[in-house]
């Protein structure tokens, strides 16, 4: 577990865009299994669909970060948005260098109707969870998600969803009560999907997990 005195958790805002995108470029897109499997290179998270998604997450008031107190460095983020039935979150920007990544992400997310359950009209959607490679395994990832879920509850979400590509993040969400609602085994896909599972560090499942919040 993390020594709580070494870390400060904070609510991320649009003013953090530069720092968050720099962190994600270095610490998320170099290690996240689907990015590795689709061999997505030269990712500029400030631009295109990914840039727009990150902006939406920072505007939501539900994205959390963690700083290493001794250095002041941002060492973890969990980016989230609120989705509501009235407001669709259809992408408006090109996927650019993440075309194959988003193709797979959209395919898996199609497997779950986010608003299928009765009385669910607001959903906390967790987008990207990343912890600096020098600080993993100390409970920071789990704590970030817990804080986001608390924001979701505070803001009246009835449900939370996340797309999981890593065994480590699966552990976090399962521990917090999320259940697998849909799962795709990437080894079963044809070559036209452009995913090389041998590059994914033993992570070959992409799952949508969900949890009722109220
Ligand atoms: C996934 C990630 C956010 C986890 O962050 P974290 O701060 O290490 O998470 P936690 O410390 O809360 O650990 C979660 C679980 O994973 C385990 N774990 C994390 N890193 C590990 C490692 N390198 N080796 C073995 N186990 C590890 C922890 O022990 C813990 O398991 P436990 O509950 O059985 O103890 C981090 O590994 C990461 O940023 N990965 C790259 C980006 C990515 O893949 N994001 C997820 C996409 S769905």
Describe the structure.
This protein is α+β, with helices and mostly antiparallel strands and 214 residues long. The chain has one domain (4-212): Gcn5-related N-acetyltransferase (GNAT) (Aminopeptidase, 3-Layer(aba) Sandwich). It is built from 6 helices and 7 strands. It has helices at 17-28, 33-37, 48-60, 99-109, 140-154, 167-175, and strands at 7-11, 64-68, 74-84, 122-131, 159-164, 179-185, 205-212. Helix 5 links the parallel strand 4 (122-131) and strand 5. It is globular. The mean pLDDT is 95. Bound molecules: coenzyme A (COA). Residues 28, 31-33, 129-131, 136-142, 164-166, 168-169, 171-172, 175 line the site of coenzyme A (COA).
Quickly describe the structure.
With 214 residues, this protein is an alpha+beta fold.
Index terms:
214 residues, alpha+beta, Aminopeptidase, 24% strand, binds coenzyme A
